[in-house]
Amino acid sequence: MQRERILEVINRRALVLFPGALGDFVCFLPTLQFLAERTSIDLLARTEFSELVPARVNVGSPERFEIRQLFVSGGGSDDKVRSFFETYGCTYSWMGSGDLTYKQELHTATQGRLRIFQFDARNSQLHQADYYLSCLHADLVPSTPHIPLMPDAAHWAEVYWAENSLKSKPVLAIAPGSGAREKNWPLISFEAIARWWRERVGGSVITILGPVEDERGGYESLCHQGLAIRGITLGCLAATIARCSLYVGNDSGISHIAAALGVPTAAVFGPSSVNKWAPRGKTVLVLRHHMPCSPCVVSAMKSCRHRDCLAALTPVEVIRQLERWPPLVTLTSQGAGIRVPPEISPELMGG
């Protein structure tokens, strides 16, 4: 009887609680894949991530009664909370590890079928993707995220390409923003890269703007270098980037998506740790101006007056690196040798 109970628990689906933003989540994908290969998963995270997840993963919002109650003393004993958690063989939480009430109530609600971890690898040199995987004691091999393209999203991107006459051109995707303004390369520098691509390569430019950039504004001059894309789902965004010849962006979640898709990705780094946060992919170039004070802690990043780690990285230096970079080394004014995919490769489709 006890053995049957153990097998029943193992065969149940698992619950995963993950609070991170887009870049964190892309780094988390190898861990999610590791779990999904062993059981079906219910993931409580930002619901917009649903188009990026592996097969056997269902995404829901953590903004629900059963989760809110865990931050209230005695909430884990609530009948509704216990009924919710008892359907899972195990709960894996990267949420709330520093909150004693949450930890105690989650332990009560799950009846101990729980593994809870710190969200961040403090005082560790591990890349964030490797840290998440190490929490499960999985073999520490370089963990490259994989993002499947949804058929509807791929079709949307194909139509977008046709409507904007992009099929025969090398396309550069630029994402000039990030979650923190202090991590952004100067806008004027991105404009110089866009002009270089148009004039030297003869290609087209797509500027990617998220909700944060729309709210901040001031990107009109960059948008005038080509097309601007905004207000689309992450699935459509991934399908759009997957068709591009080159992606250039900051230390941001979109840069992680581009790298995971296998698109040649040039990521500008300033105050962030390259060892911990560099995008993972088969073709990634990290662009940085070495400073003794970089990387720095968030408080120093927020109060920095010179921002030389970013401001001193010139477009001329970046263009020189791009033109020597093997994926782009055969650049000419006509764009010879640039990857112009006629269609989305089959391996990117589906899980």
Characterize the structure shown:
This protein is an alpha/beta fold and 351 residues long. The chain has 2 domains: 2-134, Rossmann fold; 151-336, Glycogen Phosphorylase B (Rossmann fold, 3-Layer(aba) Sandwich). 38% of the residues lie in helices and 14% in strands. It has 16 helices and 11 strands. It has helices spanning 2-11, 22-36, 65-68, 79-85, 100-110, 128-134, 151-163, 187-201, 211-216, 220-223, 234-242, 253-260, 274-277, 298-303, 308-311, 315-324, and strands at 14-17, 41-44, 57-60, 90-93, 114-116, 171-175, 204-209, 227-230, 246-250, 265-269, 284-288. The strands form 2 sheets. Strands 8-7-6-9-10-11 form a 6-stranded parallel sheet, with helices on both faces. A 5-stranded parallel sheet has the order 3-2-1-4-5, sandwiched between helices. Strand 10 (265-269), helix 13 and strand 11 form a beta-alpha-beta unit. Helix 7 (151-163) crosses helix 11. The radius of gyration is 22 Å and the shape is globular. It starts with a helix and ends in a 27-residue tail after the last helix. Mean pLDDT is 88; it is low at 1-10 and 332-351.
How are the elements arranged and paired?
Layout: H1 2-11, E1 14-17, H2 22-36, E2 41-44, E3 57-60, H3 65-68, H4 79-85, E4 90-93, H5 100-110, E5 114-116, H6 128-134, H7 151-163, E6 171-175, H8 187-201, E7 204-209, H9 211-216, H10 220-223, E8 227-230, H11 234-242, E9 246-250, H12 253-260, E10 265-269, H13 274-277, E11 284-288, H14 298-303, H15 308-311, H16 315-324
Parallel strand pairs: 1-2, 1-4, 2-3, 4-5, 6-7, 6-9, 7-8, 9-10, 10-11
Helix pairs in contact: 2-6, 2-12, 7-11
